[in-house]
Amino acid sequence: MREIPPVEDLGDGVWSIPVPIPGNPLGYTLVYLLEAPGGPVLVDAGWHHEESWRALTTGLERAGTSVAEVRGVVVTHFHPDHAGLAGRVREASGAWIAMHHADAAVIRRLRTRHDAQRWEEERARLRRAGASEDEARAATDPALRVDPPAQPDRELSDGDLVDLPKRTLRTVWTPGHSPGHVCLHLEESGRLFTGDHALPRITPHIGLYPFDDPDADPLGSFLDSLDRLRGLDAHQALPAHERRFGGVATRAAEIAAHHEERLDRLLGLLDGEPATLWELAAALGWSRDWALMPPASRRMAAAETSAHLRVLERRGAVVVTRSADGVLGWRARDPVR
């Protein structure tokens, strides 16, 4: 577990408040407080847990304010370590919650779909990906379910200004890690709140859900989004995890190069008969050995492998096949003769 850093005054009316993620190796989410007339605005809110809530409220007090004074919460993306406490902040203060409309749509779907139906559909997809019945059931255990976060009051689009009086906080749509992930550019200070889009050491999970969605291309969107960072006048990145860093454009290029290396490695695995998604994910290589991964982590690894395969499909490098029993496979496209 990572050591949780202290609450910090970053200057220019910006504070960093670490909010723990109990039981998660990431350790904490960095929630940022932006001072403004009418009350502070938070960038993200943290995981929905009592320990996290105590850290957030204590951190706000150390910054000279309280949860009751919060004007709004702008969420970089809908994942629970970012949006989980937003609803509770709204209950305590009457604050608005804002996020990109694509992630707001995801939350609406999650809140209206019946869990039993959702998980049965997911098990069928996992079987089509090459997972065994036991693996498919373990990866969709209802105990793994996390309640969706609060529905936002306000929906943002690319280029929109966040309601932050006397300051300019602009929405930069950076899809990939989620459909509606945004970075937030505090233009007068050259600071960029990057959420999970750009982190100083690790790369965010980019997964294709569902695996066989013919229209989605999250990694392609992510790589395009990284290009956008290179054109921004931002000298410092304030990510949601790890630490602040400079050289935003350089880091964006490094992350893109990492994914190009993964694409090359994956293409190198496709040198014979069609392979299933499960087989390719097991062979691709991860920070943790495939044999030691719990089922839910294997599902995430398969989703990330699928996102890379989709890019190779769009580039015309691979061909998708389907067996008689519906299992998908991938092979390298035959060379032109």
UniProtKB/TrEMBL annotation:
Show the InterPro entries listed in the entry.
Metallo-B-lactamas, RibonucZ/Hydroxyglut_hydro, Sec-metab_biosynth-thioest, WH-like_DNA-bd_sf
- Which residue numbers delimit the Metallo-beta-lactamase domain? 28-241
Q: Cite a single Pfam family from the UniProt record.
A: Lactamase_B
Region called Disordered, residue ranges: 125-160
Q: Where is the composition biased (Basic and acidic residues)?
A: 125-138
Q: What is this protein called?
A: Glyoxylase, beta-lactamase superfamily II
Q: Which species is listed as the source?
A: Marinactinospora thermotolerans DSM 45154
